[in-house]
Amino acid sequence: QVQLVESGGGSVQAGGSLRLSCAASGYYSSINFMGWFRQAPGKEREGVAQIYTRGGSTLYADSVKGRFTISQDNDKNTVHLQMNSLKPEDTALYYCAATSTYLYPLSPGSYKYWGQGTQVTVSS
Fold it and tell me: How confident is residue 91, by pLDDT bands cut at 50, 70 and 90?
């Protein structure tokens, strides 16, 4: 089992920045990919960014490219999402997730372990 705990959400005005963090514990050695997903009210959960924890390669949704950056600490148990130039449409509950492998990149159905989520609200 892997436990994930997110932190760093909050409220910010459009154009501002927030940094989310996700601390993993448990059987972490089984994990190869960690990702950030978000779900806005009335919408489906969508992938935002993911990182290959063993090599560092990253992938982003088109909607956040150039604004968001996913990274991991040297101990690889903590993953961050730096969010810059935030827009009102970025408002959502953001989840951290982890998996050993996936069928489709940035696909929620491919991820096995999930955190409880942290709210991000961007006002115009």
Answer: very high
